[in-house]
Amino acid sequence: MNVLELVSYLRKNILYDTGGQGVNWESYNSDDYDSIQLRWGNEELVSNINEAITQVYRRTNPIKDIEELEVFAGVSEYTIPTYIQNILLVKDSFSRQLKERELIDRWWDETLDTQTGDLKIFIPDLKNNTIKFSPVPSKDETLLMVIYRYPKEKLTWDDYDVSPELVEEYQLPMLWYAAFLAYSKDEVNTLDPQRAERMKSYFDREFPFTSVYSNIRKGRTSNRTIKYGGL
């Protein structure tokens, strides 16, 4: 399903928010006066869908990928892309595996920041989107990292023919979380805590926190490409 199809399903089958009979909500944007008939704008619903997809990724780890990282002599810490969810393995240009250490280890082992030589250790800090290596690199090289990742691109209403980087069978259940966010919006005509909680319970049932260890992993994809299509 593409963005238009997802928003259409969310509006017509879950939120029941189409602006009234004969209203062409598909052509509306946030600047349209007539969009006041809608409880939620198209851009807003796409934003909710993006967050719902992120929640599915957090609970299922659907995409394992390989990422390259250029390191340079004398530089031990690097910024990594925000779409990296977790770093599983790292190897150097000679295919030697690096060992993972915890961030707290830098507090107890000062040599992690002072020695220079071939890389042996990587210390990820995913909250700040950085990774540090020890010893300090003595040469330029390209590392390979096995990662779990989020989608590399966010969906937008401006390009509603694009499909999410998410397997087909997850797409409709994912919309329960988008509906939860919609009903959690703190405005008079949108806030509905009871419906929000119901939508969240439907989503939790489809994607339990333990689902990363369950059969849902059988549906994992690798290097899945973004699909394009229309209605």
Please summarize what this structure is.
This protein has 231 residues and is α/β, with parallel strands linked by helices. The protein has helices at 3-15, 42-60, 105-108, 168-183, 193-206; strands at residues 63-71, 77-79, 84-91, 99-100, 116-117, 121-125, 130-134, 136-137, 141-149, 221-222.
Describe, in plain words, how this protein is organized in 3D:
This protein has helices at residues 3-15, 42-60, 105-108, 168-183, 193-206, and strands spanning 63-71, 77-79, 84-91, 99-100, 116-117, 121-125, 130-134, 136-137, 141-149, 221-222. 29% of the residues lie in helices and 20% in strands. The protein folds into two domains: 3-61 and 151-222, no CATH class; 73-139, no CATH class. The radius of gyration is 22 Å and the shape is elongated. Strand 6 and strand 7 form a beta hairpin. The chain has five helices and ten strands, in the order H-H-E-E-E-E-H-E-E-E-E-E-H-H-E. The strands form three sheets. Strands 3-9-1-10 form a four-stranded mixed β-sheet, with no helix packed on it. It is an alpha/beta fold and 231 residues long.
